[in-house]
Amino acid sequence: MKCHKCGAAAVIQMRQHRLQLCAPHFIEWVATTTQRAIDAYQMFTPADRVLVAVSGGKDSLSLWDLLLNLGYQAAGLYISLGIDEGIDYSAKSLDMCHRFVLEHHPEARLHVVDVGAEYGQGIPVLARTRRRGQTKPCAVCGLVKRHIMNRVARDGGFAAIATGHNLDDEAAVLMQNTLHWQTGYLARQAPVLDERGGLARKVKPFVRLYEREAAAYALVRGLEYIYDECPFATGSTTNFYKELLNRLELTSPGAKQQFYLQFLRARDAGRVTFAEGGDLDLQPCARCGQPTTAGGICAFCRLWE
Ligand code: Q46
Ligand code: ZN
Ligand code: ZN
Fold first, then answer.
1. Is the CB of 230 inside a 6 Å radius of any atom of ligand 1?
2. Is the dihedral of CA 97, 44, 46, 26 positive or negative?
3. How far apart, in Å, are the Cα atoms of 55 and each of 92, 95, 258?
4. Sheet bearing 73-80, strands edge to edge
5. Beta carbons of 173 and 181 less than 8 angstroms apart
6. Of 35, 49, 62, 151, which alpha carbon lies 20 to 30 A from 289's?
7. Dist CA 112 CA 152 (whole Å)
8. Cα 204 to chain center, whole Å?
């Protein structure tokens, strides 16, 4: 298998692009693809300070590495959730982030927020003892992560929060939202969510990259990352839809990409429209000042009552 650009040995074949590339040309291709997405959706410019949410996994560390290599002012944010579950998940993933900085970008700034140390309880305990987390800790975890990301972005004056969501993630969520005709979610599912009512701007520079390409990027760049998924992610509906789409992709290369990117094009061109389901009336929480729809005290502050 030879690189289509230079004829050297190829490290990856991307059937949906009918393209196979050697290591240096693949890195260059990932950089160009990501830069094009950043420009197309006007995510941020080199003058902006960006906060990259890192988990120690392949997507977020690849994204942070690439943004730094492209010359962006990108700081990392790691939120320690206190998840052990017999595999030392949080400790190991934080260690990956520290090693990434040390070995690849010693000049980069990593913000660490330890939920247990700062608020008194980590996610597993919180979930077990609150009604919201009874079925799965993810509801509590998502709420906590959103609150902390928003706080750090606001306090640090960052222009945007960047997350490592890739095309597989987005296509899976799109499939789920479509099968349930969640029109409000379909209206808001986008590579960029603008700042509103005190909610920080959110961007996803990897939306045009397949998950296996983000993994290949990490591998080729020699980035170490945590292979384990969060133990609470097993059996998640997103993973179920990802598998379905991957089966489709096997027989029809490019199906995932087609499904997601054509949705964005059709919606952005106004060929399909979805109602957002009422304007979000955001008010500052009486305790923490972060925006809330509930009025009075936000869901995050109520967690700790
Ligand atoms: S970290 Fe948290 Fe995820 Fe683990 S508990 Fe669920 S939401 S699965 S991305
Ligand atoms: Zn090449
Ligand atoms: Zn609050």
1. yes
2. positive
3. 10, 10, 28
4. 110-114, 73-80, 49-53, 160-162, 202-203, 192-193
5. no
6. 49
7. 10
8. 6
- Give residue 92's pLDDT: 97
Write the pLDDT tens digit of every residue in 14-32: 999 999 999 999 999 999 9
State how far the Cα of 288 lies from the Cα of 280, in Å rounded to an integer: 19
Three-state secondary-structure class, residue 22 = coil
Query: In this predicted model, what pLDDT tens digit does every residue of 263-283 receive, in sequence order?
Result: 999 998 999 888 877 666 889
Residues sharing a CB contact under 8 Å with residue 138, sequence separation 6 or more, in sequence order: 232, 233, 236
Tell me the pLDDT tens digit for each residue of 169-202. 999 999 999 999 999 999 999 999 999 888 999 9
User: Distance from the CA of 216 to the center of ligand 2, in angstroms?
Assistant: 15
Residue holding tokens 């997405």? Answer: 37
Residue 5: what residue type? K
Ligand 1 lined by 233 (C-beta under 6 Å) = yes
CA of 303 to the centre of ligand 2 (A): 53
From the CA of 123, give the closest atom in ligand 1.
5
The string of pLDDT tens digits covering residues 59-75 is: 999 999 999 999 999 99
Any atom of ligand 1 within 6 Å of the Cβ of 232? yes
- 258 has pLDDT over 80: yes
pTM above 0.90, yes or no: yes
| Per-residue pLDDT tens over the stretch 105-155 | 999 999 999 999 999 999 999 988 887 766 679 999 999 999 999 999 999
β-pair partners for 196: 199
Q: How far is the CA of 66 from the centre of ligand 2 (A)?
A: 19
